Amino acid sequence: MKIAVVGANGQLGKDISAVFEEAGDSVARLTHPDIEIVSEDSVVSVLGAIAPDLVINTAAMHHVEKCESDPAGSFAVNGVGARNVARWAAQANVPIAYISTDYVFGGDKKSPYVESDAPAPLNVYGVTKLAGEHFTCCQNPKHFVLRVSGLYGLNPCRAKGGLNFVELMLKLSREREELRVVDDEFVSPTPTIQVAKQLLRLSRTDAYGLYHATTEGSCSWYEFAREIFALSGAKVRLEKAAHGEFPAKVPRPKYSVLDNAALRTASLNVFTDWRAGLRDYLGTRGGASC
Predict the structure, then answer these.
(1) CATH no. for 2-150+191-214+254-272
(2) Smallest Cα–Cα separation from 182: which of 226, 218, 152?
(3) Which residues are catalytic?
(4) pLDDT tens digits for range 172-197
(5) Which of the four, 36, 56, 130, 245, has the lowest number of CB atoms within 10 Å?
(6) Closest CA to 37 of 64, 14, 8, 63
(7) Per-residue pLDDT tens for 232-285?
(8) Nearest 5°: CA angle at 5, between 145 and 156?
(9) Four-residue CA torsion sign, 223, 229, 230, 236
């Protein structure tokens, strides 16, 4: 197949591109200089010239604080941009995949969210990504919408200064004797490579729909850091941060764990337990030598 990956230079986009290429697909890696998704003319021109069999939209404004200070810009990219890409795909009669987020939920449930749970985003980022979901689903019936959580991968995370949570913890463990991490926010830390492999699996089907796509199980950020240090052999004293010690500038869900119920029902789930995902990541990057 010929695949167009929008946002191909991102942490997730690079892994998606590589996984599809390894599977034998031809991948057009599109970055911001190549395509401007807020412009329908740009989308029509670029995608029309490529004529892909599948479009994967990973492009997003996902720096939470910047989204909050620029809601119009966030909606333009995450909402209208998603609409433009999905609309072109529908008119070309090809499937569209859109990457969404656990931040569409408010965190009040206290048990893993399933796809049928009602969204209640707390911030501009979550609202605009939810808008992107709706635009994608309404514009193109051939859609795969994947909600992800706690992403980390081998490629730099540009929105976080090039460091994902794992790399930040390992860096700080080399610089400090003690680290304090919050223990009251819960996620399912997910390697980008597993999301890419899940998307590849879905692309070989016509099982269109909305999916939660994260590793199995969950942990607090403190528990995640503890596992990072245990597996890497990092020598640092880890303590739980006091309540309110690191106040967020923007409201975020305290509990945004997702249940891959739809994937399991369709017998399509490829995700491992979050600890296994972390072990694989550290092994790939040579984490044992930190």
Answers:
(1) 3.40.50.720
(2) 226
(3) 125
(4) 989 888 989 988 899 999 999 999 99
(5) 245
(6) 8
(7) 888 889 988 887 777 778 889 999 999 999 999 999 999 999 999 999 999 987
(8) 95
(9) negative
Strands 178-181 and 151-152: unpaired
pTM: 0.92
**Residue keyed to tokens 């969950």:** 218
**Tokens at 182, concatenated:** 């919050």
Q: Is the pLDDT of residue 288 over 50?
A: no
State the chain's mean pLDDT as an integer: 92
3-state DSSP: the chain helix, strand, coil percent, rounded to 5? 45, 20, 40
Strands 54-57 and 96-101: parallel
CB 170 within 8 A of CB 234: yes
Which of left, alpha, beta for 31 (phi over 0: left; psi -120 to 50: alpha)?
Answer: beta
Alpha carbons 154 and 195: distance in angstroms, whole number: 13
Instruction: Report in angstroms the alpha-carbon separations of 200 from 4, 24, 95.
Output: 13, 11, 13
Given pLDDT bands bounded at 50, 70 and 90, which one contains residue 124? very high
Q: Which residues pair with 5 in a beta bridge?
A: 29, 56
Pairing status of strand 219-220 against strand 186-187: antiparallel
Percent of the chain with pLDDT over 90: 77
